Amino acid sequence: MELPDIICDVVDLLMPDLKPYEISFYVYFLRHSIIQNGTPYIRVSRRGMQSGIVKSAYAGSTSGGKDADSAAASFKTVRQAMEGLEAIGAIRQEGDANRDGTL
Predict the structure, then answer these.
(1) Closest Cα to residue 27, out of 38, 17, 37, 14?
(2) Measured between alpha carbons, how far is residue 30 from residues 24, 34, 77 in Å?
(3) What is the mean pLDDT of residues 51-59?
(4) How many domains does the structure of the chain reveal?
(5) Is residue 49 part of a domain?
(6) Closest C-alpha to 49, from 65, 34, 27
(7) pTM for the whole thing?
(8) What backbone torsions phi and psi does residue 91 show, to the nearest 5 degrees?
(9) Any residues with CB less than 8 A from the CB of 79 and at least 6 apart, and which?
(10) Where are the alpha helices (DSSP H) in the chain?
């Protein structure tokens, strides 16, 4: 498949079923696997996914009772997003986790 076809399939078939955090994670996985390396695999850790992918909507804010300096998603949010993607078959875990994360 060519990249434009992949993008069209993601937007048309997958995104309507995803929550915003799940979309962010899926696009990150897609970029760092198929688009960047040409392989369907990426090694990630749930703890490592807390920062850098999804910035908190409250980052830099003093409202909502959130820490204004926090720019990381909670571990619970990361876990729920990844479990949601696994539940619909968008991603799957391969093998066992190690220090570098899970494939």
Answers:
(1) 14
(2) 10, 6, 19
(3) 59
(4) 1
(5) yes
(6) 27
(7) 0.77
(8) -135, 165
(9) 46
(10) 3-9, 20-30, 36-37, 75-87
Residue 93 located in a structural domain: no
Domain assignment present for 94? no
78 touches 19 (CB < 8 A)? no
In a domain, 97, yes or no: no
Instruction: Report residue 31 CA to chain centroid gap.
Output: 10
What is the pLDDT at residue 45?
86
Q: Are 85 and 26 in contact (CB under 8 A)?
A: yes
Query: Residue 66 belongs to what domain range?
Result: 3-87
Structure tokens at 23: 């979309």
Contact 14, 38 (CB under 8 A): no
pLDDT tens, residue by residue, 4-47:
898 899 899 988 989 988 988 898 898 889 888 889 899 988 88
